Amino acid sequence: MRIDHAEVIPLAVPLSRTFYGGTYAIDRRCTLLLRLRTDDGLRGQIYIGDERDAQAEVCRQLTQTLFPRILGRRPSDVTAIWEALFRLTLPARGRRVMMQALSALDAALWDLLGRQAGLPVFRLLGAAQTRLRPIVIGGYYEEGKGVEGLIEEIEGYRQAGYAGVKFKVGGQPPAVDIERVRRVRAAVGDDFLIACDANMGYSVEEAIAFARGVADCHIAWFEEPVHWYDQVRGMRAVRAATGLRVAAGQSELHRWGCRDLVEGGAVDILNADLSLAGGVTEWRRIAAHAAAYGVRMAHHEEPLLAMHLLASTPQGLYPEYFSAERDPIGAFLPLDPPRPQDGWVTLPETPGFGIEVDEAFVQRYRVDR
Ligand SMILES: [Mg+2]
Fold this sequence. Notes:
With 369 residues, the protein is an alpha/beta fold.
């Protein structure tokens, strides 16, 4: 069985409003739809990533550089393919783009392997769990929203079947964010998970002040608490000073970056993202290393892919979703995806990543024509 066709379709969907996190604003949702085929007619398909600035460049690297190198190869050569393609990141320029292209292709190969074996990817990798606790990313900053609007938003997530929320902080002074979190926790009660994500928006001192201010709010973890330039020492300081669990890893491109977070004592939870950090192949290496340090695994976005990785290891935690308004692709592109219900999501038993898509949606939002 050899790969005889590879294709990528870029999609971009404008959002109905702009979403503000601690350090950014988002007004559209982008993704890549990858399709592979083998010479005996097997077809695989995933959508992956949310690259907004360099989407066309990632596509160009896939079609011009990577696809020609996998045509004629066996999907089961996935590790050899990974090693060969990773060498293309050695020149300094365009590494982030190349890692996204490699990551997407690697994940598409694992999808194909699953479909070939007739197994969902989490079983192909060796299932450790068959259901997970889904959370939703919310608590965005919004003009005029107020704490009442926040509470209404979070209550809606509980009713939608999520186990918890990952809440945006880091975009206001700590005292303001502390008040937002305290009021929401008091309103929703203690049985709904709340994690806080600063998106690197605080200094170390601000992060410690925030964490101390929410110390009795049962915060599940504090994600990317400090600015980008002081990650390892800064997050270690936050952990030591507050006792709050710290999560990071979504900004890393590879196992070495994650290794430094783990061995530097910076994190309790790694949320490495397969769409950036080398696909399924590299994510599994990252998780194996983390396990030796008692570090749990989360995943940044991509719930339909991430749930397979998280379920393939006993250290895997919560797949994370967006609302339909923040992520119209997740809401309307896949046909019949597994849905959160009563605080759980059950892994699908369909082969590969099990993703089938709405063709009309693809034709409407593709940006390559
Ligand atoms: Mg995050």
